[in-house]
Specification:
heterodimer, A: 407 residues, alpha+beta, 9-stranded mixed β-sheet, 52% helix, B: 248 residues, alpha/beta, 7 helices, 25% strand
Amino acid sequence: MTLFQIALNNLRRRKKKALLALVALTLGAAALVAVFSLVGEMENEINRQLTELGANVVITADTGSLSFSYGGIIIPELHYDAEELTVADLELLYALPDWPAVLAVSPKLVGIAAVNGVDLAIVGGSLEAEYAVKPWLHLHVEEEEGAEHEEENPTGMRRPDEIAPDLSNREVVIGKIAAERLEIKEEELIDIGGTEFLVVGILSPNGGSEDNQVFMNYEAAELLLGKAGSLTVIELAVDFSRVTEERMLGQLETALPQARATSVRQAIIGRNELVGTISRYGFSAALLIFFSGVFLVGLNIYTAVRERTREIGIFRAIGFRGAHIFRIICTEGLLLSALGGLIGYHAGLLAAYQIWPLFSGHDPVVVWDPLLLALTVLITAITGVLATMLPARFAAAIDPAEALRFF
Amino acid sequence: MVKENSLVRAQQLTKIYYPGGEPVAALRGVSFEIRRGEAVAVMGASGSGKSTLLSIIGGLNPPGGGKILIDDLDLYSLSAERRADFRREYLGFVFQQFQLIPYLTALENVMLPLTTTAYSGRVKKEMAEAVLEQVGVSDKSRRLPNELSGGEQERVAIARAVVNAPPLLLADEPTGSLDSQTAGEIMDLFKELNDSGLTILMVTHNPDNSLYMDRTIMMQDGMLISGGLEEGFPAVMPAGSDRRAGGQ
């Protein structure tokens, strides 16, 4: 018989009450772990997007009013029909003092045309340059019957050996959703504004604007849209380790006063702030639940102590010190809270896994982390014991003569 | 069995309670002596101070005045925690209505006083099993208290009180919850323990129980009226004292 066994036996005796406290603490720990995991996953998602965004500066004419979705991040006010940017503006960009920090540039003319009778966005530019600023773009490969399954590509990024097709003036690459909408397959002909084009490839779906676009070379788009020498958007991949964001945007504004240069990093920073706000609210709510659980454990133990006054009097009478009683009660709190932390960690992880799809279309990368598990159990155990200390002190101070009603 | 050498010496014990703010004297200058190996019954009407006296001797309830010496050690000169150690090593308690811990088996209940000792788990278990054998309920060692009869629970309670081989056993109405036949068996057990050298102080209402004892101390209104007088120790306070401490 040890103090630990006495504590354990007592918890077993009052299973229902112990279970109630355990559930409360489990919920608290689960809420904390779920929020922690979700916020971590949000940060991972932002980092993933940041990594995938080859293009991190978008230059548009400063007249638009249409949102432009870029890698899941909304860049406001892109006007698809603007003409203020021209091919000649590219020369001004090449003359920028920090132009060497620009790793890739993709100028494009964007417009709308009837494709097989359906209005779709037409993008004219170099597919090779587009590949350079959008590493996730790649052509969809139809699996042939009987062929081996393509090896899974969990990142969704383009394989290094895929080269952008060099499009002639009568060739296009079409987004997956647009192709499905038009019921068009590779190597088929489509009519765009009265001219026939050959579909040489279909882009893999990526959830972005490319899914609904028809991509052709610049000259073909110039002719089709009747906008010779015009550009709608210029996307840049800038190495911000070599030049500051403010400096690069300042140079762009000076060189192209009629245009607006937007850093995707700024959009991400804005989104990061949003994640920060969500996490603050989330953690506040989770902490509230957690401490409510801790309070319930303390209250549960206090009630148990009150109910066990006579029993504690017996312990004291047969030679248990106040310190022994204190240890028994604290051990009960420790057992409950450590178990609550252990179950709560796994419940929180499961909750994060289930909730994450509400935030993102991607599968969560919530992982079982022994360090976080140990930390969760440690924190819940410490707070649980702290909550138990007050009733434990009360128990240790019980007067045995009074408890046993000797007078 | 030679019964000499003082084990317990009570010297002018007083105790005042304040129920509802009014002072009431539970003990008024009680003095007596118990020799090593003696079996002493304390009798008296309800409210005579028997249980208060027992709790004071048990180190659970500090007296308002006077001293209690056990083996010449002034019990209340010790801190509360040291008194707990003293109770574990020197005293065995048999409470009214058994007072077994309901969620522990008979064996675990008996092992309780050994919990905080330095004995190994195996030795503790052997000691508990031996004493359960001695009191005649070794076959019930795995049972919970609610699975035992009243007499069996009393035997387990006695086993718990003597498992650490204390010199002094304090019993508070140990047969109060038992029928007369079982009470007789329990008193036989107390007699056996006393014959083996254990000093017993038993508070009881039952005159039959006192027949098993060497001596009976009679109490009335917080005073000892017979059975405790030893040379040099007045049994009662001087004449004129009142049950109400402040009421002289």
